[in-house]
Amino acid sequence: MVEFIFEKFGKGVTDFLGFFGGVGRLCGQAARDTITPPRYTQLLLDQVYAIGYKSLTLVIVTCFSTGMVIALQFSYGLEKFGGQLYVPKIIALSFIRELGPVFTSLMVAARVGAGIAAEVGSMKVTEQIDAIRALGTNPIKKIVIPRFIGTQIALPILTIFGILIGLFGGMIICYTEIGLSPQYYYNKVVESLALKDIFSGIGKTFFFALIISSVGCYKGFTASYGTRGVGLATTEAVVISTIAILIADFFLTKLFMWL
Fold it and tell me: I need a labelling partner for 10 at 20 to 30 A (CA). Which of 42, 145, 186, 229 fits?
């Protein structure tokens, strides 16, 4: 029994270290190949469109409903203390620092991370990646780099849209439930924000984008043959990306507070 426990623990540690080593090696290869020609600009634009534009509706619905719920909860909670006038400030700080970047990244991880892993995994099991190598083309440049850079471009833009939509949803609740005018809401939001708050919120998304794209590509490249292997890689990519984003958010928050 003890040997079985140690065996499972050792296998878990080995898999954990192997995963981080593989992701790190993939990121290193992508960084090295990015600066060398050829560059597939059209593939990059296609990824920006697929990652950014096609995720916009999901981000809008998520952030809009979240902004309304947060405003509603805080308005009820602060009503007994007479602090409803502070609801716009609370919404602005929480959405720009945390809720906007994290919720947007989680939605993109669920949609885009799964899509990247499934697409690359399907290319792996159908030997399309081997065919790309046989034609003398670097699969890192043609498959990984457009997804890496496309996510780095699309996720911050989606986060900005998500933050604005979330603040708009909060404004609707503040106007209909509390009776705060849109002008007062806008003034309080602007007064409560500093440049460091915006930098902290948007800055996190570049790290989250790297997590989503790197995990998705790595799981796709290491998918086992067969449809079951692709499905397992897709599930693992979403789960790992989600957990990594939540863990990274804590350390990034501490880092930006320190800076």
Answer: 229
